[in-house]
Write a structure and sequence with these properties.
single chain, 393 residues, alpha/beta, UDP N-Acetylglucosamine Acyltransferase, domain 1, seven-stranded mixed sheet, 19% helix, 28% strand, ATP binding, glycogen biosynthesis, nucleotide-binding
Length: 393
Amino acid sequence: MALPRVLVLVLAGGKGSRLELLTETRAKPAVPFAGVYRLIDFPLSNCEHSQIPDVWVSEQYQPQSVNEHLANGRPWDLDRTTGGLMMLPPFQGSERGGFTMGTADGLWRQAELIRQFGADALVVVSSDAVYKLDYRDVVEAHLGSGAEVTMVTTEVEDDDASRYGIVQAADDGRVTDYAYKPDEPATTTATNEVFVFSPNETLDRLEAISDEVGDDGLEDLGTHLLPAQTKDGLARAYPLNGYWRDVGTIESYWESHREFRCEEPPIDLDKPSWPIHTRGGRHSAARLLSGAVVEDSLVSGGTRVAGEVRGSVLSPGVIVEPGATVIDSVLLPGSRVRAGATVTRTVLDDGVTVGERATVGGDGAVTLVGRRATVEAGTELSAGARHPEPEDD
C-alpha cells in the first residue's frame, strides 16, 4: 500500500519582534540555537526523519538569512531532482501576489500551488520552537479521523497560556473549543503550531472566509480558519507528550539554553536514530587555553577560552580572553569578551565585543546586546538592559 502523499509547509516569514535585537537583521528561523544550530533546523530535521521529501518554506522578512542557511537543503536530504526543498518568497504576477498579512493569508496566497501538488495531507509548521516529532504519525492519525484539521497540542504554564491558541478537547480527541490568544485561557492545553490539514477542504473553506472578510481579513490561522473548523466539529487534537519549547521571547530563548547545557538535556540532539541536522561550518576544535575554567557549558568548535565560563553556551568563533568571566549567558558566533570583563545572564548577538573590564548584566532580567555592537571598556550595563537601546517608535 502506497504511503499518503504529504506536503510540509514551513512558515518562516515572520518578523519575530519579540526576540528584539536578535531579529533586526535576520529572520526568526535563522536565529542560532545551542551553539551550532538554527531554529529552522528542528522542523527540517523532523521532516527528514519522518521521511517526508516534499518541503516548502514560506519566507518574507529578511529572507537572505534563511536562504543562506538552507542553501540546497542537503543536510536534511532535500537536494533532490524531484521534490525536495522549495522556497516560496513573496511574488507578483497574480491577484494573490504581494506580502502576506498573517499565516492564513499566506496559505491562501499559495493555494493554487498546493492544489496542483495534490497532497493527501498538508502539514503546516512554524519554525520558532524546539522539539522532535514524527509528522507521519500525526498524518496517519489525521487521515483516519475524518477531521479537517488535526492540531498538535502541548501543556504550557498558566501565566504563559494567553500567548497561544488554547483548546478544549473531548476524551475522543475532538476539539470542542478553540480560542486564539485569549485574555483568560480556559485551559493550559495549547496548539504548538503544528497542524495537519485536509488540503482541498481547508482551501475551500479559506476561499469562503476570504469572500466574507476580504483578502486582508484572513490574518492568522487562529483568527478565522481554526475556529470555523472547530465550530463544525472537524478539528482533532494530537497531544505531544515530549519536550516542546517556544523560544520566541528573549527570556524563553535564554531559559531554553539553560535546559540544553544540563547533563541530561530534554532532547538528545545527537541521538543516532534522530539527530538534529544543520548546515555545518568549517571550524577547528575548541581551544581551552592555560588558565581556562569551563563548567556546565556547551562549547562549540572554533572557540578560544582563556577565562572563566560557567553555565553558558558558546557558539563557533567565540573568544573569552584571560581574566574574563562569562556566567549563565549565551554567546552567538564571533562574539568576544575581552580581558577582565564580566558577562552575566546575557545574550550576546553575532560579532559583539565586550571591552576590557566592562560589566554586562547581572541578577534579574536577561540582558541583550545587539549584533556587532561594542560595549566600551569599563562600561556597566545593568541587568535587563538592551544595547544599543531600541529607538522610540
